[in-house]
Design a protein that fits this description.
Immunoglobulin-like, Rossmann fold, 6 helices, 20 strands, about 35% strand
């Protein structure tokens, strides 16, 4: 009889414990997560800090957190569980044991291996009771967003055209001479303005000498990126390895233009139904804004490249850089037309070069390579 009573009491205690944990398992439990940087470049490492706190007088012997992240934010192998090869997400589990009035902090290092805007929406927290009889879960929003800016391609891929954009260049004639470009000096004829007189030369020559200025014009480049896959109707976006290589090459060209004081612009037939374009890039700040535009660029395309080019005013540019997976006769015809009006066209491609096209300039691009879930010492 006593044994029966003990069993009844144990069962009652277990049921009571289950009831209490079911209703109050997460009462007094708080979870927060944050990163030390919200905007980084490809290849940079950031830190994700998770803090879980038990404010109650009752311990939690086992509590598990599970954070979902993009596969392009790589954690160490011991921190993450890779899903199937077709999945875009990685789950990052964490197991804690919390004493009463106790807090636990865990810092994870993340390597950002691809441009994009990534977010941690919520964390699933699972807790169990002291006896391990039940498990209960809740979702806690974290609302973390990370912008990963693209970086430029490296090595031999970054070869610019033979007519490298170098800001302002000298031309034979223009409306007015450029007062900031001095090519020498000449004797004063009476037709030059007095502010052209070089008084140092005048004193040494005992006659009026004026500065001889050049006529200049400014160079403006257009980086034109084709995100369309070849010979597929309706229009389909190119493979991600091609697209990411295009973006990195675009960044390299624009970066070199900014360094050489050459204004440039970016345009692509992907991202939206009407394509995506930047403002004219004149300064480092504008260039950084374009990097954010590229970070947000969707890997989608439904605008035919030929039709897209027909809506572009090429006349305001001096150099056109076409970055594409393939090169067809329409692109070559457009390059011929542009050359007739003095606009230089250069092709960058991950595909094959056309035959009998010596008169054009083609530069190969290496496709973007990637991997995720790297080892701990690489993160």
């Amino acid at each position: 009889m006593e044994l029966v009573a003990i069993c009844v009491i144990l069962i009652a205690v277990a049921l009571l414990e289950i009831l209490l944990y079911t209703r109050y398992a997460f009462k007094g439990i708080s979870y927060t997560a944050f990163v030390n940087k919200n905007e980084v470049y490809e290849g940079d490492t950031i830190e994700l800090t998770e803090v879980i706190e038990n404010r109650r007088l009752v311990s939690l012997p086992w509590i598990k957190t599970e954070l979902s992240a993009s596969r392009w934010l790589t954690f160490s192998k011991k921190d993450s569980v890779v899903q199937t090869s077709g999945s875009e997400s990685t789950f990052i589990p964490g197991v804690f044991s919390l004493k009463p009035k106790n807090r636990c902090t865990r810092v994870r290092r993340i390597k950002c291996i691809k441009r994009g805007v990534f977010s941690f929406e919520d964390t699933v927290i699972t807790a169990t009771d002291i006896l391990g009889l039940i498990k209960t879960s809740i979702n806690i929003p974290v609302k973390i967003q990370i912008t990963v800016l693209p970086t430029a391609s490296e090595g031999k891929d970054a070869i610019l055209s033979f007519n490298e954009p170098m800001g302002e260049i000298s031309v034979r004639r223009f409306i007015n001479e450029d007062p900031f470009v001095v090519s020498g000096s000449k004797e004063y004829t009476g037709r030059e303005p007095l502010n052209r007189i070089n008084w140092n030369y005048t004193a040494s020559q005992n006659r009026l000498i004026v500065c001889n200025n050049e006529h200049t014009t400014s160079r403006t480049a257009l980086v034109l990126m084709n995100m369309q896959r070849k010979d597929i109707k309706p229009v389909v976006c190119a493979h991600i390895r091609d697209t990411e290589a295009f973006i990195k090459m675009s960044v390299r060209i624009m970066e070199d233009c900014v360094k050489n004081s050459c204004s440039c612009a970016f345009a692509t037939n992907g991202g939206t139904s009407i394509g995506t374009a930047s403002d004219l890039i004149l300064t480092a700040d504008r260039f950084e804004g374009t990097l954010r535009l590229l970070a947000q660029l969707e890997n989608s395309c439904n605008y035919d490249f030929k039709e897209f080019c027909e809506n572009i005013n090429f006349g305001i540019f001096t150099d056109i850089f076409i970055i594409t997976h393939y090169i067809d006769e329409h692109m070559l015809e457009r390059a011929d037309k542009l050359r007739l009006i003095g606009i230089n066209t250069i092709f960058y491609t991950t595909g094959e070069f056309p035959e009998d096209s010596i008169k054009y300039q083609f530069i190969p691009i290496t496709k973007f390579s990637y991997r995720w879930n790297v080892e701990e010492d690489n993160v």
